[in-house]
Here is the input.
Amino acid sequence: MGGTTGVDQTAGADRAGSSSGVAAVLWPGEPRRKRGPRPKFSLDDVVDAAIAIADAEGLSAVTMQRVADELGSAKMALYRYVPGKAELAALMLDRALGLPPTNTSGRWRRRLRSWTVTMHERMSARPWTLELTVGRRTPGPHELAWLEQGVAALRSAPLDGAERLDTLALLANHVRGSVEQAAAIDQPETSLAESLEPILTAHADRFPQTVAAFTEAAATGRRDDAFSFGLDRILDGVAALIARRG
Amino acid sequence: MGGTTGVDQTAGADRAGSSSGVAAVLWPGEPRRKRGPRPKFSLDDVVDAAIAIADAEGLSAVTMQRVADELGSAKMALYRYVPGKAELAALMLDRALGLPPTNTSGRWRRRLRSWTVTMHERMSARPWTLELTVGRRTPGPHELAWLEQGVAALRSAPLDGAERLDTLALLANHVRGSVEQAAAIDQPETSLAESLEPILTAHADRFPQTVAAFTEAAATGRRDDAFSFGLDRILDGVAALIARRG
DNA sequence: CTAATCAGCGTCTTATAGACGCAATTAAAG
DNA sequence: CTTTAATTGCGTCTATAAGACGCTGATTAG
Here is the structure.
C-alpha cells in the first residue's frame, strides 16, 4: 500500500520514555537559553511547517525530511527541537485543536452544543487530526482547556464528576466519528458511497434492509447532517437524565 | 518512538488500486483452483496467524516477516495470498468483528442495546481493532452484517433510512471511543490517570473544574462504566425522538 | 581570552513494505 | 504419458523513514 502515516505515541509496547517525552514537550518548563549558538528557528516554526504540510498534502506527507526541507534545514537538525516524531505529532494536534470557545453564559445545553460544534469545525478543517487522536495520548494544554470548558459548561447540571467527564467523552467521540465519516464521503475515490454501492448491489439479497436504508437516505437527500443528528440525540439523552433528577 | 503500526487502506493520496484490492479480498468471487502446485496454506491461515500475533503482542508486531515466521514460510510467499498489508489488515478486522448477534425479537431499544454491547465486547477483546477502524474503509461481509442487523433492529421505529444509519454510526462511534478509553486506562504505563495526574496537579489552578471532576470521579469509585453511561444517554435520546413522533 | 555549551547536520543503521523474476510443481491438453 | 501453461514459494533488491552518533563551529559565561 502506501499511506501508513503512523505516528502514535501509543507504541505497541514501548519503553515509557517516549510518552514522557511527549509530556515534556507539550508542557515545557522554563526555556533556559544559555551558551551555544542561537537556534535558527523556534519550536513553533517546526510545528507550523509540519502543519502546513499536513494541511496541503495530508499527514502522510509529513516526514522529518519534508519538514526540514520546508524549513530549509537538514533533517537531523529538527531533533534539536523535537525529541521525535511522536512529539511533533502531539504538538501538531494540540495546536490544531486550538483554544475552546469561552462561553460563560447560557444554559448547559447551549454551551455544550457550541463546544461540540466548534470542536467539529476545528477537526473538520484539519482532517488529519483524526489520525492523531488514536490511542492513549498525553493531552496538551489546549486539549485540557477544552476539557475544562466542557466541565464548566456542565457546572449547573445535577451530574457528578464522572458523569460530566463521560458526557464530554461521549460528545468528543461523536465529533471524531462524524469528521471521519464526512472525510470519507468527501473523498472522491474510496468514498463511502463509491465503495459501498457496488458491494451492496452485488449482495443486495444478503443486506436488504441496509440497501433500503441507503436508498431511502439517498432519495431523501437529507444527508451530511449526521453530525447534527447525533448531537441532538446525545443532548436529548443528557437532558432526559437531568430532567429525571432536577 | 516505536509503535507506528500504520496500515490504513486510507493512504494519504494513493492510487485507487489499493482500495479495490481490499474490496476484492474481502468480497472474493469463485476461488478457481487450477494448475500450479497446491498452496502450502490458506488465506484463513494467514489471517489467523496475523490475528494471533496481534492478540499476543499488539498490532505493531504484525509485520509481513513476523506473520511469515509464524507460518514457517518466507515473507514474500505471503503476497501470493494477500496483495498487501492493507488487505491483510482489512481481513483481520472483519474476522475480529465476527457476526453480529441475531436477535429478531424484542423492541428496538433492547435489540440495539445488545447490538452495541456485543460490539463493545468484541472490540474490547481485540483492542487492536481500534487502529484498524481509522479512516475510510471498505466494509467486509461481517461489518455489513452488523449494519444489516442494526438497521433491522430499528425496523419498527418511526425513523427514516438516514436516521437509522446515523443512529448506528452514533452507537458505533461510542463503542469505538469507549474501547479506546478503556484501553488507555488499563495500560499500566501511559494510563489516563498516570499521565494526567502529574499534569493536573502541576496546573491545578488553570483547570480547577477538571481537577474537581476527576477528584470526585476517583472518590465515587464509579468508574469504567463510561460505556454504559453513554449508551444509555444515546438510547434515551433516540427514544425521545421516537416518542416525539410515535 | 578560554572553555563550557549547544546548534546544525553528515553519515550510518535499522526496520518494513513491496517489486521482480526464477525455478519447481502440478493439472490440463494433446 | 508426455508436453505445456499456470501457479506457488521465495531469494534478491529497492525504496522510504526514523533515529543514533559524533564532529564542527558558533556563542557566551567566567
Observations:
- Residues 4, 33-38, 63-65, 75-76, 79, 84-85 of chain B lie near DNA strand C (CB under 10 Å from a C1').
- The first helix of chain B runs from residue 17 to 26.
- The mean pLDDT of chain B is 89.
